[in-house]
Every structure is written in C-alpha cells, then in structure tokens.
Amino acid sequence: VGLLVYLDTDNHHNVTDNYRILGGVCPLSFIEVESWQVRKGHEENHDAVIKEWFSFLRKNHSDMFAEWKSARYYREVDHQGLPTGRFIMNFEFYSAEGHDAYKKRRKDWSGPYEEYKRVDPYEHFIEESVKIEYWEPVEEELWLDFE
Predict the structure, then answer these.
(1) Which domain holds residue 37?
(2) What pTM value is reported for the model?
(3) Higher-confidence residue: 141 or 8?
(4) I need a surface site. Which of 60, 94, 111, 121 has the fewest CB within 10 A?
(5) Residue 113: which CATH number?
(6) Which residues lie across from 75 on neighbouring strands?
(7) Across the strands, what pairs with 30?
(8) What is the 8-class DSSP label of residue 125?
(9) Would 144 be classed as within a structural domain?
C-alpha cells in the first residue's frame, strides 16, 4: 500500500523541519501548489501579469529560481469542463531543502527579488481564497507514462 504525504502549511513555515519532526527523508522532488480566485474586475490584469510572471521567471531562472524544477499553471474546471473561477500554480522544486532555501532567500523581497515582487500576481487574488499545499512524490517506481 502506498503512502501519500501531504503537508498543509503557510508561506513562512519551514517544510524541511516537518520532515525532521516526522522522521522522514526529503524527497528528490517537492511540490508547492498555490490556488486562488481572481478579484472581481481584475481578470484582464491577472491574465496579463501571469504572462509577465512566466516571462520574468524564464529570463531569471538560473539566477533567482535555480531550485525550481518546473512551474505549471492550471485553471480548475468542473466535470463538464466549465471554469470554476479557481486557478493553481504548481511549483516543482528539486527538494524540500531547495524550497526552504529559496523562501529564505526571498523572504524580505530584497535585491533582485524587489523586481520580482513587481510581477507577483497576488494583488489580483482574493486573499481569503489563497490556499497553499505541499506534496511529495511517493511510490515513483509504480508510476506510468503512456507516451
């Protein structure tokens, strides 16, 4: 039987400490999933800043986001394929330690992260709707790719 480890915490929590507390080992890959709803009237600005954000990330990946393995963006839909109004960003880090190192380095938005803050889309989110979850892969040897 496989084991799914799920940690629900806030932006400031040190995820690596959770692994130590749980007696676990940090995985090779670590996922942060942020979900949100867009403020009413901010839809166009939200869409534009998401594109700017990806452009900034692509341009600055090696200097500012080297711990990131991937970043993926999704819109939630219902079973009929209709948008629910909720979005997610799936941040894949190489490790939980890398996640924590990045968050620590970026914590006060100084240096190059001051420019990054300008393309941060949070001002377009309904604050109460933001949810952050952490996931790690398990039983990878059982995974299937049908390509």
Answers:
(1) 30-139
(2) 0.76
(3) 141
(4) 111
(5) 3.30.70.100
(6) 87
(7) 93
(8) B
(9) no
